[in-house]
Amino acid sequence: MATVAVPQCAVDDLDVETNLTELADRTARLDATVDVALFPEYALTGFVADERVESVALVRDGPELDTVRETARTNDVALLVGFVEREESDYYNATAYVEPNGETTVYRKRHLWGGERSVLTPGNERVIVETPIGRTGILTCYDLNFVAESAALTRERVDALFVTGAWPATHSENWRLLLRARALDGVRWVVGAGRTGARRVPGTVPLDYAGRSAVVRPDGTVAAATNRDERTLVAELDPDVLAEQRAFIPVYEEPVDTDTK
């Protein structure tokens, strides 16, 4: 039995120090039984679609990620956290899975949305990590819309998907629908960490975020969820539930190649 937590939170765009403090405080308040805590897309840096984002972009071996690693170690919990990553002259929408021993795996969002395309480079690799839940694929927000991503991770027989998001509040039903669909079509757990609060940055369009973090069972039903409040969602993921649903919905007995002739 593994326990996951989603400390649903707002993000201060372009203010890394404040966001790091929030992450450390929220992690420290978790119960000792929590194995993994998921924070939302761009949780460390926030995002704006102009050159200002370059000033807060982080390198994965830099001091800010060292602070995240120290937070994971001190609290003996794995952390999933999003940020703008810089590598040489390229910038990425990145999500890091940080284990308590400091080992760090980074996924770069493959499908960029809207203004991201003007300042970021898409990732080109899918990422699977070993977590207390089992083999787990990482997706970011708009990646959920692409069935090909789900099919590829189904072929890899992942036991769970971890999803970071910053979904607009006006489309929150789509976020919830896609989390449920990606759980059912691969018969796996899905944990979605959604940003809440609002973006109010000069020179950008004001935007309210959906929140609505959720843990979805392998049969597509919602096991636990939040609305838009800043509270921590906690759920236990029972491996017997996964085994039962995979026996009932035998997608792994069918070919998953979607090519048609």
Automatic annotation (TrEMBL):
<protein>
    <recommendedName>
        <fullName>CN hydrolase domain-containing protein</fullName>
    </recommendedName>
</protein>
<dbReference type="Pfam" id="PF00795">
    <property type="entry name" value="CN_hydrolase"/>
</dbReference>
<feature type="domain" description="CN hydrolase">
    <location>
        <begin position="2"/>
        <end position="239"/>
    </location>
</feature>
<dbReference type="InterPro" id="IPR003010">
    <property type="entry name" value="C-N_Hydrolase"/>
</dbReference>
<dbReference type="InterPro" id="IPR036526">
    <property type="entry name" value="C-N_Hydrolase_sf"/>
</dbReference>
